[in-house]
Amino acid sequence: MRRLSCVATFTFFLYGVSGCAEPLTAVKEGDLIFHTSRSPLSQAIQEATSSRYSHMGIIFYRQDKPYVFEASAKVEYTPLNTWIARGERKHYVVKRLKDISLTPEDLAKMHKAADAYFGKPYDLAFEWSDDRLYCSELVWKIYQNALGIQIGKLQKIRDFNLDTPVVKKELKARYGDHVPLDETVISPQAMFESPLLAVAAER
Prior knowledge:
This protein is an alpha+beta fold. The protein has helices at 42-49, 80-86, 104-115, 135-147, 165-175, 188-192; strands at residues 13-15, 21-23, 32-35, 55-62, 65-71, 75-79, 93-97, 155-156, 184-185, 197-202.
């Protein structure tokens, strides 16, 4: 088992449309955050993976402010309150490792791993390469490459529900008649369900 140690915990306030502050449970660097995206691809991801959540990222701090490091149009840092506002009904779930407290050394390794992906384009084909990345692939690889921790079970495209009209339409648009059924993938739902994680905050 990895060595446990205390790391700094950050508490902050999110401001809604009304301008009133809404306290969010303290979050830590390295936390995973999930929501339901409003992107055109969201419904297909939800149906294929049988999940409420279609998008995720990892929380990092920059100049003492919380950001979500995510693969959206490209791999980038998005202010946390902006990221939450993009989701359906501003609902989100924050999860973190249950039995491991990340050390400053761990976090330094994770930042270095994240830097290697910064600015790379979004992967619409969901290929298991580092040239382009999708949201859950980005977070999974940061934990794996930096700390050797695999959050969520890797699957193949064929493991998902590919039979709904919405999913079929998206597959046709991306692959034509040649869907790479044996492509390795990691879904937001697989990471959300990981036994390594526990809920840290939710709204």
